[in-house]
From TrEMBL:
NCBIfam families, per database record: MMSDH
A Pfam match: Aldedh
Name of the protein this chain belongs to: methylmalonate-semialdehyde dehydrogenase (CoA acylating)
Xref: PANTHER family: MALONATE-SEMIALDEHYDE DEHYDROGENASE, METHYLMALONATE-SEMIALDEHYDE DEHYDROGENASE [ACYLATING], MITOCHONDRIAL
Length: 499
């Protein structure tokens, strides 16, 4: 098998890095090396930023209608190439093909939303705000934007960033995860096939040095980050010190509250899918279930459902979850499972030692279920990012709400109930940015903003929706008066009044 050499993308062309540092990209089901990715040099990052800066001079003046038509073409190309993109995701990330195709679909939503740029970027006008004075606002692009994405959604997360950024007239430098870059690079190729001009969308690769260079760079005006809380917090501070806008979508510990009046089978099936799908490698995964009142009696049904889930490579048609992305991720998850046992949680389903026929080297961990979990335990405090579900029991809805609100993270939460009153009470009182009602993973459609909160988010504005338009643009307000040619001034007005 030929090992792919992952290029950079600079000034509209794939460019081979001259870096001496390269990393292997590995199929997590087999440990087979499928690609190599460079850790770009500082000079190469400078080239990418310079290309974007130069392209901004002309791209910012391209009519909205033309930008819209490029987005229309891009969404069609993504739709036509979904199977190819999904296969690349599955090969390097490990998630199942249906899950990978679903990821492409969620990314496609953002591109479709960007097709509405002709109405999204409109300003405001007040005619005759004062005597023959009009006041109007313009939503103009910032300049060069940048994005740094995590490994878990190599198509969706870049789509959360560059389509709206470039549709609003900015140019862009993207640093995808070095663990699974190929599907992202194919997406960038499709963007250029759709008509994105040279220099408008550039790609560099690397680790902390490249990320820090992006955060520090004076020519980059805004940075979007999705990844761990540790890295996001460091980059947020660096970007702020450099005077740039920053949004950081970070770690989570999401809770699913199950009321006793919920549809039992629906709630359990949705809970299991959200906890163990993608092997738990989702920032919106439900990693804690709070069983309220008599719903605590459903624990064995949840455990039985977890035991019956199928683990296999992403290409296996009946697999419910695939491998973890790397041997290091597997080791960490299994270590946290052991810690959970040591700290007194009850291990009902143990996914360690998971064997998949024909794939002896895969990074497989099966669904794992703990009960009797307390807030002091490591498995509750840390984001495990693996197929591990913690179960907590409480007596009342009030206790459940207080329990969720006491957690420092605020990415997402959900509740399963058949009571409209309970649902409305929950959505009103819960202090979490994204809420699902009988929806286990409440990532909103792309024309609404991604609104994680508290410890899961830094920055006032999130990706997608109206907030993304505000993030990628700056408002210029114009106050204008036009005099008749024969108009004679009535004298000097030394007050602040517009007169």
């Amino acid at each position: 098998m030929t090992v792919r050499e992952t290029p950079m993308y600079i000034d509209g062309q794939p460019v081979q890095s001259q870096s001496q540092e390269w990393r292997d990209v590995v199929n997590p089901a087999t440990q087979e090396v499928v690609a190599r990715v460079p850790f770009c040099t500082a000079e190469e990052v400078e080239q990418a930023v310079a290309s974007a800066k130069e392209a901004f001079k002309t791209w910012r003046k391209v009519p909205l209608g033309k930008r819209m038509r490029i987005m229309l073409k891009l969404q069609a190309l993504i739709r036509d190439n979904t199977d190819e993109l999904a296969a690349l995701i599955s090969e390097e990330h490990g998630k199942t093909l249906p899950d990978a195709a679903g990821e492409v679909g969620r990314g496609l939503e953002v591109v479709e939303h960007a097709c509405s740029i002709t109405s999204l970027q409109l300003g405001e006008l007040a005619e005759n705000a004062a005597n023959e004075v009009d006041v109007y606002s313009l939503n103009q692009p910032l300049g060069v934007g940048a994005g740094i994405t995590a490994f878990n959604f190599p198509i969706m997360l870049p789509c959360f960033m560059f389509p709206l950024a470039i549709a609003t007239g900015n140019t862009f430098v993207l640093k995808p995860s070095e663990q699974d870059p190929t599907s992202t690079m194919r997406l960038v190729e499709l963007a250029h096939e759709a008509g994105v001009p040279a220099g408008v969308l550039n790609v560099v690769h690397g680790g902390p040095d490249v990320a820090n260079q992006i955060a520090d760079h004076a020519d980059i005006k805004a940075l979007s980050f999705i990844g761990s809380s540790h890295v996001g917090s460091l980059l947020y501070d660096r970007a702020a010190a450099a005077g740039k806008r920053m949004q950081a979508m970070m770690g989570a510990k999401n809770h699913c509250v199950v009321m006793p009046d919920a549809n039992r089978s629906q709630a359990i099936n949705n809970l299991l899918g959200s906890a163990f799908g993608a092997a738990g490698q989702r920032c919106m995964a439900n990693s804690v279930v709070v069983l309220v009142g008599e719903a605590r009696e459903w624990l064995e049904d949840i455990a039985e459902g977890a035991r019956n889930m199928k683990v296999g490579p992403g290409t296996q048609a009946d697999a419910d979850l695939g491998p973890l992305v790397s041997p290091q991720a597997k080791e960490r998850v299994e270590r946290l499972i052991a810690t959970g046992e040591q700290e007194g949680a009850k291990l009902l389903v143990d996914g360690r030692g998971c064997e998949v026929e024909g794939y002896p080297n895969g990074n497989f961990v099966g669904p794992t279920l703990f009960s009797d979990v307390t807030t002091e335990m490591t498995i509750y405090r840390e984001e495990i990012f693996g197929p591990v579900l913690c179960v907590v029991g409480v007596e009342t809805l009030d206790e459940a709400i207080a329990f969720v609100n006491a957690n420092p993270n605020g990415n997402g939460t959900s509740i399963f109930t058949n009571s409209g009153w309970v649902a409305r009470r929950f959505e009103s009182d819960i202090d979490v940015g994204q809420v699902g009602i009988n929806v286990p993973i409440p990532v909103p459609v792309a024309y609404f903003s991604f609104t994680g909160s508290r410890g899961s988010k830094l920055g006032d504005l999130g990706p997608n929706g109206k907030q993304a338009i505000s993030f990628w643009t700056q408002t210029k307000t114009v106050t204008a008066r036009w005099f008749e040619p024969e108009n004679v001034s009535s004298g000097i007005n030394s007050t602040i009044s517009l007169g």
